Amino acid sequence: MNYESQIVKNISELIRRIENTCECIGRNPNEIKLLLATKTVSGENIKIALQAGYTLIGENKVQEIKEKFDTLKDIPHVKHYIGHLQTNKIKDILKYNVSCIQSLDRLELAEKLHSRLTFEQKTINAFIQVNTSGEESKFGINPENVIELAKQVAELNTVKIQGLMTIGLFSAETEEVRKCFQLLKNIQQQIITENIPNVKMNELSMGMSGDLETAIEEGATIIRIGTAIFGKRIYPDSYYWNENK
Ligand SMILES: *Cc1c(COP(=O)(O)O)cnc(C)c1O
């Protein structure tokens, strides 16, 4: 089977996984958006998935967004940023039509985004990324500081918080992974009761190729899938999740 048909087949298998999970717990599969995690995937190969009707993509590196921009510019899609964002890349992010930063994890980043957005007379959506696993290698703000950050970002009228994002613990122990997703849901509920102006909490971006069922069971509204669609990546994820690179 060529790579193109493999991608299409992988997507339909993935959709079946989503539907099966939803059926077991009585959720409507339409509540769950599939984000294609496209790091290392070429523009041409991303196109195959876009043409199959899945038009939400997430990139981890500004450099890759640049490289793929021309290939993808004529095909409708929505682009989120899901990697660690350095403040010196903000201008580029805005130039390449990223509509949502899922990895907002510190006030400094929100403030720098705000000043650039104000200058460009634009707004952007954002999710607060929470480190629910306590693993040092992962980005995200500590769970106990999320509400404070939400309140601070609420003051910046160009940055529109829509929800929360997390990367679950890498573990074969489903119940340990589940705790991460439950924690995210829990923080979401706390923020909702705070009723912060300018802060929406509709989205929970959680679940990847290995743990999407658990994430859906715990209330995910966006799952971010790379490997299960595009196959294994050559680079280890530490390449993407290490601040020094
Ligand atoms: C790579 C990546 C994913 C997708 O991971 P897979 O296990 O390949 O599905 C999801 N979220 C983030 C932030 C990623 O960097």
Describe this structure as you would to a colleague.
This protein has helices at 3-25, 43-51, 62-72, 90-95, 107-120, 146-154, 174-194, 212-217, 227-230, 238-241; strands at 33-37, 56-59, 78-81, 98-104, 124-130, 159-166, 199-205, 222-225. Helix content is 44%, strand content 19%. The chain is an alpha/beta fold and 245 residues long. It has one domain (3-237): TIM Barrel. The protein is built from ten helices and eight strands. The chain starts with a helix and ends with a helix. The radius of gyration is 17 Å and the shape is globular. The chain has an eight-stranded parallel β-sheet with strand order 7-6-5-4-3-2-1-8. The longest helix has 23 residues, at 3-25. Pyridoxal-5'-phosphate (PLP) binds at residues 37, 39, 60, 82, 167, 208-210, 224-228, 240.
In short:
The protein has 245 residues and is of the alpha/beta class.
